[in-house]
Every structure is written in C-alpha cells, then in structure tokens.
Amino acid sequence: AGAETLKRAVELDLASRFQESLVCYQEGIDLLLQVVKGTGRGGGSRTRGGLTAELCDTIFFSSDGKYHKQIRIEENATGFSYEKLFQEYLTETVSEVWVEDPYIRQAHQLYNFLRFCEMIVKGPCKVKTIHLLTSCDE
Predict the structure, then answer these.
(1) Helix, strand, or coil (residue 58)
(2) Where do the TM regions start and end (predicted)?
C-alpha cells in the first residue's frame, strides 16, 4: 500500500497537482514506516477499513487546495462518528463531494462509504454528486 501511494504521489507531482502529491508522499512514507515499526515487533500489517477499528488519515482541502487538516485516529479508538469528523465542513454551500481512497476493496469498506454518503445526504448541504476515486485491485 505504501508503494502504491508513493506511485500515486509521483503521478500527481508530474501532473502539477502539488498539494495532493504532498499528501500522498506523506501518507506513503507513513505507511512504509508503519511496516518497518511492525517488522521490528515481530511482523504486522496495516489495512484500511472501519473508522473505529483501524488507523485512518482524513484530509480536508479548501476550494483553493491550500488548507488541509489531518486527523489521526489510533487503532481501536472509539467515538469518531462520520458526523463528528465531517459535519463542520458540510455546509449549505457544498454541492459536490470527492472521495479519493485507494483502499476500498472489501464489503465492510463499501458499507463504510455507504454510511458516509448517507450522512452527507441527510446533512444540511445540497450535494448533488458524490465521486469516489479508488484504485484497481491487482
């Protein structure tokens, strides 16, 4: 996953999408460091999925792409609902949502995305389109 994220960072960098490439570089390095740390303790892996079960990095960009906020949720943490994480950004002016997550593969990940979409639709915003960009499963 770390290597794939770094490949994506290079692609974004070449496309002059520097803010997004920076985020991918940071996440890719973080993923590789997690593997190194896990290997030092007898092995381990990191997967993406439910918000209450695993580490999740969430990044928000303003319309000009210059602002971001990263929230780290430690493994097995509780109390982080989609509403608590995203509600302050879902105002009446939001009409389109883009989600980029290369890790959506399994049923529970699809259900999490569905719950996220339900939260958006029920919110105060007037979202007409939700886009999901994910990667191919090799």
Answers:
(1) strand
(2) none
Count CB atoms within 10 A of the CB of residue 120: 17
What is the C-alpha separation between 131 and 117, in angstroms, rounded? Answer: 10
Q: Give the H or E element holding residue 71.
A: strand 70-73
Each residue's pLDDT tens digit, 55-91:
444 444 445 555 566 777 788 888 888 888 888 888 8
Q: Please give the Cα distance from 132 to 98 (Å, whole number).
A: 6
Cα–Cα distance for residue pair 52/122, rounded to 1 Å: 21
Enter the pTM of the model: 0.50
Spell 82-109 as b/e; 16+ CB within 10 A means b. Answer: beebbeeebeeeeeebeeebbbbeeeeb
Return the closest-CA partner of residue 103 out of 43, 41, 27: 27
Which 3 state secondary structure label does DSSP give 133? strand
Q: What is the pLDDT of residue 71?
A: 75
135 phi and psi angles, rounded to 5 deg: -105, 165
1-10, 14-23, 49-58: segment of lowest average pLDDT: 49-58
